[in-house]
Specification:
Elements lengths: L5 H11 L9 H12 L4 H11 L3 H10 L11 E6 L2 H5 L2 H12 L12 E6 L12 E3 L2 E3 L4 H13 L8 H13 L3
Parallel strand pairs: 1-2
Antiparallel strand pairs: 1-3, 3-4
The structure holds FE2/S2 (inorganic) cluster.
FE2/S2 (inorganic) cluster binds next to helix 5.
Length: about 180
C-alpha cells in the first residue's frame, strides 16, 4: 500500500519528467516526501525509488548524505546548530549548552511538548560570516547569543500552526530582534 498521497506522487512524477535522467529528481522528490510525512520513512523512500526507477538503496544513500533530510519523526520545528570551526571559535559551545538547557533534551532529542527537535552538526551550514549560526526550519539565524536564541525560540513557538514555515513569521522575527537590539 502506498504511503504517499496522490498529490505527492504526482509531484514526484512532475519532477521526474523535468529531467533527462529520472535520478536527477531524487532531491526534490525527497523534499516532497518530507513535506508530506515530516520525515523520510523507509516506505516513502521506497516509493521514490519506484517512481524514479531506482533501487531503494540508491535513494537512501542520497537521503543519508544530507542533514536537511530527517530519518525519524520530529517536533513541529527543527533546529540545527553548527559547531564547525568558525562557529566553534565564536561560541557555538555556549549556544549548544544553552539550547540543551532551554529545550530540556540533548542533541538529537525532541522537547516534551513536541515543538522542537534540535541537533548540533559538524557540517558547516555555510553561514560562517554570521557565526555562530543555526537553522530553524531551514531559515538561517546568525550572530547567536543565548538571549537571541531565546527570542527566536519564543517567536517560533508562538507561531500559529497554520504558519510554521511562512515568510511572514521570519520577517516578524527579524523585525522584533532588530527592535530589541538582539
Ligand atoms: S562553521 Fe558554522 S556556518 Fe560555517
Amino acid at each position: 500500500m502506498n504511503v504517499l498521497t496522490p498529490e505527492t506522487r504526482a509531484e514526484i512524477e512532475r519532477q521526474r519528467d523535468r529531467y533527462p535522467q529520472a535520478r536527477s529528481a531524487v532531491l526534490p522528490s525527497l523534499w516532497a516526501v518530507q513535506h508530506q510525512l515530516g520525515y523520510l520513512s523507509p516506505e516513502g523512500m521506497a516509493e521514490v525509488a519506484e517512481l524514479l526507477w531506482l533501487t531503494p538503496s540508491e535513494v537512501e544513500a542520497v537521503a543519508s548524505f544530507y542533514s536537511m533530510y530527517f530519518d525519524r519523526p520530529g517536533g513541529r520545528h527543527h533546529v540545527l546548530v553548527c559547531i564547525n570551526v568558525s562557529c566553534a571559535l565564536r561560541g557555538a559551545d555556549e549556544i549548544v549548552s544553552h539550547l540543551e538547557g532551554r529545550l530540556g533534551c540533548p542533541s538529537g532529542g525532541t522537547t516534551a511538548d513536541g515543538e522542537f527537535t534540535w541537533e548540533q552538526t559538524v557540517e558547516c551550514l555555510g553561514a560562517c560570516g554570521g557565526a555562530p549560526a543555526m537553522q530553524v526550519d531551514h531559515h538561517f539565524q546568525e550572530n547567536l547569543t543565548p538571549e537571541r536564541v531565546d527570542a527566536i525560540l519564543d517567536e517560533v513557538r508562538a507561531a500559529p500552526a497554520s504558519e510554521p514555515h511562512g515568510p511572514s513569521l521570519w520577517h516578524r522575527i527579524a523585525v522584533r530582534l532588530r527592535k530589541a537590539g538582539r
